[in-house]
Amino acid sequence: xxxxxxxxxIGVLLLIIxxxxxxxxxxxxYRVFNKVDTIWRILIxxxxxxxxxxxxxxxxxxxxxxxxxxxxxxxxxxxLLTASRNNWNPGNIIFSLIIFxxxxxxxxxxxxxFSNLNYEDWRYRNLKQRFGKxxxxxDLFGICLMPTAIVFFASVPYFxxxxxxxxxxxxxxxxxxxxxxxxxxxxxxxxxxxxFIKKRNTNAEICRxxxxxxxxxxxxxxxxxxxxxxxxxxxxxxxxxxxIYIGIIFIYLLFRFISIPMAEKHxxxxxxxxxxxxxxxxxxxxxxxxxxxxxxxxxx
Length: 300
Description:
By secondary structure, the chain is mostly helical. The chain has two domains: 151 residues, no CATH class; 132 residues, no CATH class. The protein is 73% helix and 0% strand. It is globular, with a radius of gyration of 20 Å. The model has no long low-confidence stretch (mean pLDDT 91).
């Protein structure tokens, strides 16, 4: 085994240990706060586990220690809830299985780009340079706790589905199909981007192949679609619970007004044709005639 693979393996194993410990800490506090309403108890323990992961990243000098948390927290909490209540009904199995597939794909995507314990996403490096000594607070609240809270609220429909021991109804298939299609969109867009990166001559080139030809962020579109589908599976059975809509609203706002502007500002710095690409495509809409719509002054 060469040194590169060895460092990656050590890094992945350490991340696994960190996440196992974080899960155990969450379970301990879940039992401590046994008089708190279940949903809010889950949130409290989720945030406590997040703080531990953040602290581990502080020790390792990388904020990317938190990156897999986004994809893992929902399915881990869901399986633990299901096991504790023994709610292994068909609907819950289908729901959990499709979320597991989403989680496994996203986590595998992170591992494929993860190199070693020094790895850190470019966005975090930029924020470090921008905020200096104040970055520690940006790291804790902006990079870790805020996404945990957003994903938690987006996951509430799934958690409530388990807690209420809801049974499968055919109408739920609408939500399951949307989740599945969104995972496919994410997978295709990631594959096309990875293939492009391997073949490009310089990082100044822009991927305009496949889904990326007509939309600038098909991967984000798929991500939003997954959480919309999760909300819909529960909403078709109980649409009057306003809490289930909070998460998907914040998921959309996060991507549309934080992640996308940050990424595009970064691309504009070194991709000379990105301005034209942006002028000709929509951010989150996949339309083969998007170029003509954009030229006619339609908003993004």
